[in-house]
Amino acid sequence: xxxxxxxxxxxxxxxxxxxxxxxxxxxxxxxxxxxxxxxxxxxxxxxxxxxxxxxxxxxxxxxxxxxxxxxxxxxxxxxxxxxxxxxxxxxxxxxxxxxxxxxxxxxxxxxxxxxxxxxxxxxxxxxxxxxxxxxxxxxxxxxxxxxxxxxxxxxxxxxxxxxxxxxxxxxxxxxxxxxxxxxxxxxxxxxxxxxxxxxxxxxxxxxxxxxxxxxxxxxxxxxxxxxxxxxxxxxxxxxxxxxxxxxxxxxxxxxxxxxxxxxxxxxxxxxxxxxxxxx
Length: 279
Prior knowledge:
By secondary structure, the chain is mainly α. It contains eleven helices and no strands. The protein has one domain (3-276). The protein is 77% helix and 0% strand.
């Protein structure tokens, strides 16, 4: 792994983590296209590349924490005082409870898929096919959303359905933000609310993965040999790009359809599936 690869993957992670186009799919595509360009076999993946992927996700986690810092603080305060005073009626308390419940549901669904998801890193053609599925869902949700009356607040039903969608997004190619926002639209949520909730719901999952994975799978004797300059630069790039992406994507989604991302997923999915077929 070199500096150029880490910068490219940092940009890709920062953009695709919050846009409904599957960050995991784009990291798989970027890594494998880079390997094809450099003449490296696709089946080769070092622990350093895996660690870089974790750090890139950590960079985007920091971005979402900074952007939503006020909302996060209000939710934490509402949970604390709600439990202390046994008053569970506030909107922020309910939102915090939904995020906790959604995280548990996500883990229960995503954990059994972990081994399959890891194997797909070496099967970019299949990842492309799953990305096509994301595109179809985005287009379908936009079509069906026109038939629903938008609601401002998230409900228990919304939160459960969105959590199931987030769990399925453990498979690279299924966009986490795409599936969760599309599910929110299909269940009648107002689009900006669905997008903001999708980003907030991502925090515990990304944080958990960033903390748990290194503790159980990283070889700490090997880690000192990593290219830490490349890793640090890639992490910073993913965080900066991610912050900018959140800011402008929320403005975009409040005014425009997600259909453009659906068509993008279809085009990229078909293209990569054909390119990597048989490789």
